[in-house]
User: Fold this.
Amino acid sequence: GGIACGKSTVTNVLTQQGIVVIDVDLIAREVVQPGRPANAAIKAQFGAEVFTPDGCLDREQLGKIVFNDVTARRKLERITGPAIQKELVLRLLKHWAVATPLVVVDAPTLFEMSSPRFLQMLSDVVVIAARPEVQLQRLMARDKSAEQDARSRINAQMPVEQKVENPATSVVIWNNGSMEDLEQQARDLAARLKRSPTVLSNLFSGPGVVAGLLLAVGGVHMLAKL
Assistant:
């Protein structure tokens, strides 16, 4: 998904409204910690120069490689993708087990990493979008980055138009205005999601873990940022 479009603001509001949010970005950071298989695989693929002396992934150094090289980015995704998906499924199962009625998954690369069939299974797909020039200015201000570096990060992602126009997208939140406007849209979204019927709320009498897992994955709301 995108960057610097207000995703964190929206998910913070959803959390304040009592909705469980699973942040896939945080999962992505956890699965590459020292001692995890993905950490070793990245070192084997990209070398020790993308790591700090204490064995932690140097995300800035790795970013300089993958945001400017599609092949390198695909190699990284093949390493981290399965680990992230496994951890996400485990967390969904935990919420299924305790009958959590509504879960929002903040998945920045939802469209890039999901099959059309999976997207059709979701209760809602919410896209947070901003005009490209707004996104660029926010990213440069936030990270104090040069324009070319910011553009490289944005250009490494799926174009805004493709996500907004994807048939699976059910709600688009445009964040081209004030923080107050975005927060109000997020509160409206929370109210909508709480009213929406979800598969997740109906699967607790399911006949087994496998069936429950399939339904749980299909019964969450996915939040993709642009």
Summary: Residues 50 and 60 are 8 Å apart (CA to CA).
